[in-house]
Amino acid sequence: MSFGQALGVLDVRGMAALMGATDTMLKTALVRVCGIHRVGSGWVTVVINGTVDAVEAAISVGQMEVAKRGALISADVIARADGDAMAAMPHGQSVRDIALGSSALGLLETRGIVPIIAGADAMVKAASVSLGGWATVGSALLHVVVRGDVASVQAALDAGKMAAEKVGQVVATLNLPNPDAGLASLLPPPVKETALSAGGLGVLETTGYVGAVGGFDQMIKASHVSVCRILSGSGGRLGTLFTGDLDAVEAAAGAAADGAKTAGVFETCHIISIPSVEPLSCFVGEAVNRSVSNNRLAMGLIETRSTVALVMAMDQMLKTANVKFEGSYKSGSFLTSSVIRGDVDAVRTALNVGAVEAAKHGELVSTHIIPNPLPEMNSQLAHHS
Question: Is the pTM of this model over 0.85?
């Protein structure tokens, strides 16, 4: 058994709280970040190490900083950490040796995909800042980072918060004028800028995959838009991002909302006029085209909040009707969907049987049939991967 330095563990809810507390800890005592772990449901853990006195001092100020935001879950100090035990812990895998730079750091945290994208676009339009990436910590909590001088970062955060609050919930903002270099491991992956432009960016937000697919189907049938990707925002939230001329995006948005409401759980739909390049690069990025067949058979979707319910439903569906299983998708928050293909009558029969069977073993969320799916859907639907 080998023993190393003391470890400090701080569990908080939300990245803004964790980032602020970690910056304070690193500036207060001679400690370093040795890992971060995104537990899920919005909980995030940071682990620091150093001498016992230094770790105790750091954890003490970290707790006080987090308590200001009402986000403290737990904190502890391990005076003599067992090296073998610590090697098996997941937090060490997140340590990254990257340069943080000297510019101020701003963070906007929201609940939901629409407000984080709307906020990010507003920030880069309002001030001379650059986007430093985005990430989620579960429970539909997302955050985006901006960098620039102190005044520009504050102006960007003010604009981003205002824009995000108009379309959703802002959880927190954070402005660190002189961030400690040790925060690098807490930052999201950097943005790879791409040559993207669009007259409009639409974001359809749903809870669950079935609503997203239903909205996708209706938007491309109603208007000439390109669906860029289906983005996971955790907590079951999915964002279907689509671009095109502003008029086309506006027409698609209305159809997408109707389709999502019919198929599953609709949250909101938002349009950004002439989105900036950085948000497009950050959230849309390079297109993900999957190699799938040009399948024009009817598509059936079933979504449950129980893996057992879905497995039992799929078993009966495949035994009852002449349909084929095409794939599954996990949205988060226990939501899982499966997709089948076949002729319309067979798919409808299978879904009816599946709905009854799923309800026996768990929670049935939704079923939906698309009699005539367009070929464009095959390149972006996530259940193929």
Answer: yes
User: For the chain, how far is it from start to end, CA to CA, in angstroms?
Assistant: 43
Six-digit token string for 187? 């930052």
Eight-state DSSP code of residue 191: P
Taking only the tens place, the pLDDT of each residue in 311-321 is 999 999 999 99
Q: Is the dihedral of CA 376, 377, 381, 385 positive or negative?
A: negative
Length of the chain: 385
CA distance 41 to 222: 36
Measured torsion, CA atoms of residues 140, 111, 142, 363, in degrees rounded to the nearest 10: 10
- pLDDT, tens digit (0-9, with 9 covering 90-100), for 145-188: 999 999 999 999 999 999 999 999 999 999 999 999 999 989 99
Tokens of 339: 């997709």
- The torsion angle over the Cα atoms of residues 249, 251, 257 and 262, rounded to 10 degrees, is -130
The kind and range of the H/E element at 327 are strand 324-332
262 contacts: CB under 8 Å, gap ≥ 6: 214, 368
* Residue of 27, 194, 180, 161 whose CA lies nearest to 102: 180
| Cα–Cα distance measured from residue 302 to residue 352, given in angstroms and rounded to the nearest whole number | 10
